[in-house]
Write a structure and sequence with these properties.
The chain has 573 residues and is mainly α. The protein contains 22 helices and five strands.
């Protein structure tokens, strides 16, 4: 008898693919990845395009479900052109749905919606109701990631209705499970804004969906699904006050997960138990569970789980009065949050580069195939492809150099462009001006109106500035509420007038339309110097002038000591 845990029970390509498909039915994602990777390698060696397509499709699915988003997307980008070429709409719809989940894991919500929208089109093209049901399910999850829970539940409810019409236990279970999770997320959102009625209704929906999903999970004979559903339902019962029943379900979930080797799921059960204990004031018990589970999560590199455990430990230690321990976990939680954002940014950059590499590889294959054709046609294709790659490269550079909230340049853009402007000023002999602009009392805006309004103020301010600077000027958000504008070849009088126009535009803007009672002003420090001048000196003197503007009462422009072409290095007053 073959050992299912052996590295590879067979070396036949067809058998590897069959074993990988069987692993998918058992939700053995890690094993499935090993089998599919081996099948991919053999298919490439044999130049077996059909088997390669099957292996890549499996890799998209397994990696997506295992949380390996970047690998799932890379496999999807490799297989989608093959599926489009083969006009296999059913397989394309399936792959696009899994890729959408991977994009959601990386925080690329728009890309996720683009892929799931294409999956709806593909499912309709092939007339496959099951795939259309799956696509609606994924749209619901995408909406939930955007915090639009009502829309999410509407799409998931439509997916559930389709699944029931199809008589598909698999899709019915999937829709019920996701409906429960989204309703639970809606509960958390309502609870955070003290909406008791909304929270109660949301968790009641989650419990109903979880109870029905548990019946299907038990009927499927799939231990992973049963443990997952028990864990979810235990959490729903716990936050609704049914703590005894919740602990029973969570203990069953943990035991089932451990018995079948689903270690990550077992740790998630522990996280749910600890959350419930924190709610019940059993902080010592919660801390003991979390400390033990934290080590396991770190061994598995389950960073999201580690992050949540540090958050729970922070809450438990804080409630117990252990403020030093609470602070340590709070700092670790935020450090992990920053790391997660950096990893997402890195992954997004790598994905863009991988897309470029895939495009280049396809271009190479196309070039080989077209060598027998006319030189004119081949040259036109090469030019079109090169232009497209340049556009993608420009998009990648824009992503690296842009502030994600306002679309303005960031510090890296300033470090890149300011030396060029200073060199131009030195060659032309014309002065250069730097203005540091800082929104007045911005913390008060966030405190009184909320961070969403604060973000809207920053975006609107950026638009006001962008509309009032010249094409050759440099404008950037330096961080927080501080902006920098560098005016090339600007006389002192012109630069001051330009800053006054910016200040007046902010003061006169209809901020009440953003939030009732809102008023926003800006303080500006301006420095005009002749070349040669160092970038650091130029900005430091503008920053010092900004300090004087703040000190003098805000909502004003203060200029550093007057510009003198004969003495370009003079200091601030």
């Amino acid at each position: 008898m073959k050992n299912p845990q052996a590295p590879f029970a067979t070396t036949s390509l067809d058998e590897l693919l069959r074993e990988a498909q069987a692993a998918a039915a058992r939700d053995e994602h890690g094993r499935g990845i090993e089998l599919a990777l081996r099948a991919e390698a053999l298919a490439r060696e044999a130049h077996d395009k059909a088997s390669l397509t099957r292996a890549l499709r499996l890799l998209v699915m397994f990696n997506s479900r295992e949380g390996l988003a970047e690998q799932a997307i890379a496999a999807g980008q490799a297989v989608l052109p093959m599926l489009r070429e083969a006009a296999d709409d059913a397989a394309r719809a399936d792959v696009l749905c899994d890729m959408a989940m991977a994009f959601l894991d990386l925080g690329l919500n728009q890309e996720a919606l683009d892929h799931v929208s294409e999956s709806v089109e593909a499912a309709r093209a092939c007339g496959d109701a099951r795939l259309l049901c799956l696509a609606y399910n994924r749209i619901g999850l995408a909406k939930a990631h955007l915090g639009r829970f009502e829309e999410a539940e509407r799409f998931l409810a439509e997916s559930l209705s389709m699944a029931r019409e199809l008589g598909s236990a698999e899709e019915t279970y999937r829709a019920l499970t996701n409906l429960g999770v989204v309703a639970s997320d809606a509960f958390d959102a309502c609870e955070s804004r003290s909406d008791a009625a909304g929270a109660r209704e949301a968790i009641d929906r989650a419990k109903r969906h979880g109870e029905e999903a548990l019946i299907l999970a038990r009927g499927s004979g799939n231990a992973y699904r049963e443990a997952l559903t028990l864990s979810n339902l235990g959490r729903y019962l716990g936050v609704s006050g049914q703590d005894k029943a919740a602990f029973v379900l969570l203990d069953k979930a943990r035991a089932l997960a451990q018995a079948h080797g689903h270690r990550s799921l077992g740790l998630a059960c522990e996280g749910n138990r600890a959350e419930l204990m924190v709610r019940l004031g059993r902080h010592d018990d919660a801390i003991a569970i979390l400390k033990e589970a934290l080590g396991g999560a770190q061994e598995l590199y389950a960073n999201s789980m580690v992050q949540d455990m540090h958050r729970q430990l922070y809450l438990a230690h804080k409630a117990r009065g252990d403020f030093a321990e609470a602070l340590a976990h709070h700092e670790r939680y935020h450090a992990l949050t920053r790391e997660q954002l950096e990893q997402r940014n890195d992954a997004q950059s790598r994905l863009m580069m991988n897309r470029l590499e895939l495009d280049q590889a396809r271009f190479g294959a196309e070039r080989s195939r077209m060598e027998a054709e006319l030189q004119r046609v081949r040259a036109e294709q090469m030019a079109a492809e090169a232009e497209r790659l340049q556009d993608q490269a420009r998009e990648l550079r824009r992503y690296v150099l842009a502030d994600p909230l306002t679309g303005l340049g960031n510090r890296r853009q300033v470090e890149r462009e300011l030396p060029r402007l200073l060199q131009h000023s030195a060659r032309s002999g014309e002065p250069i001006a730097a203005a540091v602009l800082d929104l007045d009392h911005f913390k008060r805006v966030n405190d009184q109106h909320g961070h969403a309004v604060g973000d809207a103020v920053l975006t609107a301010t950026a638009d006001l500035f962008r509309a009032r600077v010249r094409g050759g000027d440099l404008i950037a958000r330096m961080g927080g509420e501080e902006f920098l504008i560098v005016f090339a070849h600007a006389s002192p009088s012109w630069a001051r007038e330009a800053c006054e126009r910016l200040r007046q535009a902010v003061q006169d803007h209809d901020w009440a339309a953003v939030s009732p009672g809102l008023a926003v002003t800006v303080s500006i420090g301006l420095c005009v110097r002749a070349a040669p001048v160092e970038a650091a000196q130029l900005i430091e003197q503008a920053d010092a002038a900004l300090y004087e503007a703040k000190k003098a009462g805000r909502n004003r422009v203060v200029v550093a000591d007057s510009y003198d072409p004969a003495a370009p290095q003079q200091r601030l007053l």
